[in-house]
Write a structure and sequence with these properties.
Strand order of the largest sheet: 2-1-3-4
Number of helices: 17
Number of domains: 3
Distance between the termini: 26 Å
Length: 445
C-alpha cells in the first residue's frame, strides 16, 4: 500500500507540475520546456517524499484515528519543502540554465500538499469506515485494543464474547469485518480453534489474534507477546538469516560514518573545548555497553554528567537535548562495534539486571546495536537506576516505572529485530532528525 501511495504521489506531483506550467505559459503546452523543468522538479519531488516520510505520511497503519497535529506537521513539511526547494532552484539556476519561476514552485507545492492532506484523510475514512469487529476472549492486550477502538470512531465492536460458549448458534457474520481472538483462549482451550473455523473462517471472516493486531497497529510487541515462548521461538528464534542484508548494512555504515566525520569534526572540536573549559572535565569517556550476542563493547561519548553523579553539566544539558553527545560514536561505527541503526546498547549492569526479571530480554542482542533505533523514535528514554552494583529504587512506584518502561523499550526493539530491513533502517535514519526536536513527554506509550 505504501508503494501504491508513492506511485500515486509521483503521478499527481508531475501532473500538477504540467498543469501549473501550462497555465502559467498562457495555456500553451511545450514538452521540451516541461522536460527541462523536470531537471529541477525531480529533486524537488525527492525532497518532498523524504519530508513526507519523516513526518509519517506514509505510515498508513496509524491512520486509524485522527491526529490533532497532522495539519501542523503537514504545514511544517510544506514550509521546509518550499524553502529547501526554492534555495536549491536559486543556487542551481546557473547550473541548469532553466528559468523556473518561484511562483510555479509555490503553486505546485500548494496543490500537491492539499492533495496529500485530502488523500490521507480519504484513505482513513474509506479504509476504516464502519469497521465492525467481533472480540473473543479476555486479555490485557485485547483490553488495550478496545481502548483504541473507543477513540477511533470508524471502529465498532458489535459483539464481545468472553468465551466460545457465548457465541450463539447461527450467528449472522455478513456484517462482520474481522474477528479478534485472544491468544490466551486459543492456548487454553483446544476446542476454540474448531469453533472459530466453523463459525467464522469457513464463512470468509478475517481472523486475527490480539497479539498480531496489537503488533500491526502499534509497531511494537505486546507485553504478553514477550512472555509467549511459542511466539518467540516461531517468529524470532526461528527467523531465517538474510545473508545479503548484513553486508549491505555494513557497507552503508562505513560510508555513512566516513561522510559524516568531516561534517561533524569541526563541531566535535568545538564541543570538546567547551566541555574542557566550561565544565572542566575530560570531554571524552568510554562506557561499557552490551553489543551483539551479549558481548561487552566500549562506547565513546562526550561527557555530559558530573563525574560520580547523575547530574548533567552545563554543556551536557544542551548536548543531551540534541543528542550531540553521541557524535564520537561515529568511531564506534567504523570499528564495527555498533551500526547506524539498531537497538541502543544499554549498560552491561543494567542488562544483567533486566535479564533476571524480563523474559527474552537478550533477544535485543540478536542484531548489532545502533546509534539510533526504533525504540528511540517511538518511546521516551527509560530511567536508569542501575548505576552501582545494585539498583536504586526509592519506592515501589519507581520500580514499577522502571520495569514498565524497560518492557516497552524491549517491545520496540524486538519488533525491529523481527522486521529489520534496509528500507526500515532508512526510514529510522530519516526520522531521527525530527526526533531530536521532540520532547520525551510528547511521545505516546
Amino acid at each position: 500500500m505504501r508503494f501504491l501511495f508513492f506511485l500515486l504521489d509521483f503521478i499527481v506531483f508531475f501532473l500538477t507540475a504540467a498543469f501549473v506550467i501550462t497555465v502559467r505559459s498562457s495555456g500553451s503546452w511545450d514538452l521540451l520546456y516541461f522536460l527541462n523543468n523536470c531537471k529541477v522538479l525531480v529533486p524537488v519531488f525527492i525532497v518532498n517524499i523524504i519530508l513526507l516520510l519523516i513526518f509519517s505520511f506514509y505510515d498508513l497503519r496509524r491512520s486509524y484515528k485522527r491526529h490533532s497535529n497532522r495539519f501542523v506537521e503537514l504545514s511544517t513539511a510544506f514550509i521546509v519543502s518550499f524553502v529547501v526547494s526554492a534555495a536549491g532552484i536559486y543556487f542551481g539556476l546557473n547550473l541548469f540554465h532553466i528559468p523556473t519561476p518561484k511562483t510555479n514552485l509555490l503553486l505546485i507545492l500548494l496543490i500537491f500538499y492539499c492533495y496529500i492532506f485530502l488523500s490521507r484523510n480519504l484513505y482513513r475514512l474509506l479504509h476504516f469506515s464502519q469497521t465492525k469487529v467481533v472480540c473473543l476472549g479476555t486479555s490485557r492486550t485485547l483490553n488495550r485494543l478496545r481502548e483504541v477502538w473507543k477513540k477511533a470512531p470508524n471502529f465498532k465492536v458489535i459483539y464481545d464474547f468472553k468465551s466460545v460458549e457465548e457465541i450463539p448458534q447461527g450467528l449472522d457474520v455478513n456484517d462482520i469485518d474481522f474477528l479478534v481472538v485472544s491468544n490466551n483462549i486459543l492456548e487454553q482451550d483446544n476446542n476454540t480453534a474448531k469453533i472459530i473455523f466453523d463459525n467464522f473462517v469457513s464463512k470468509n471472516v478475517i481472523c486475527l489474534t490480539d497479539l498480531a493486531l496489537f503488533e500491526y497497529i502499534f509497531s511494537r510487541l505486546a507485553k504478553e507477546t514477550l512472555r509467549n515462548a511459542t511466539w518467540l521461538i516461531k517468529d524470532i528464534a526461528n527467523k531465517k538469516k538474510n545473508s545479503v542484508y548484513p553486508i549491505i548494512k555494513r557497507i552503508f555504515d562505513v560510508l555513512f560514518a566516513l561522510c559524516l566525520l568531516p561534517v561533524f569534526l569541526p563541531l566535535g572540536i568545538i564541543i570538546y573545548f567547551l566541555v574542557l573549559f566550561i565544565d572542566k572535565q575530560n570531554p571524552i569517556f568510554f562506557q561499557e555497553r552490551v553489543g551483539i550476542g551479549g558481548k561487552a563493547i566500549q562506547i565513546c561519548k562526550f561527557r555530559t554528567m558530573i563525574i560520580g553523579t547523575e547530574t548533567p553539566t552545563k554543556v551536557g544539558k544542551v548536548l543531551r537535548k540534541f543528542r550531540l553527545d553521541e557524535i564520537p560514536q561515529l568511531i564506534n561505527i567504523l570499528d564495527g562495534n555498533i551500526s547506524v541503526v539498531g537497538p541502543r546498547p544499554i549498560w552491561m549492569k543494567e542488562y544483567e539486571f533486566l535479564k533476571e526479571y524480563i523474559p527474552a530480554h537478550s533477544l535485543r542482542n540478536v542484531v548489532k546495536p545502533g546509534l539510533t533505533g526504533w525504540s528511540q523514535l517511538n518511546f521516551k528514554a527509560p530511567p536508569v537506576y542501575v548505576v552501582l552494583e545494585t539498583p536504586k529504587f526509592e519506592n515501589d512506584f519507581q520500580k514499577h516505572v522502571y520495569f514498565r518502561d524497560a518492557f516497552v523499550r524491549l517491545a520496540y526493539d524486538v519488533w525491529y529485530v523481527k522486521n529489520a530491513s534496509f528500507m526500515l533502517d532508512l526510514e529510522i535514519m530519516l526520522k531521527t532528525a525530527k526526533r531530536a526536536f521532540i520532547r520525551d513527554k510528547k511521545l505516546s506509550e
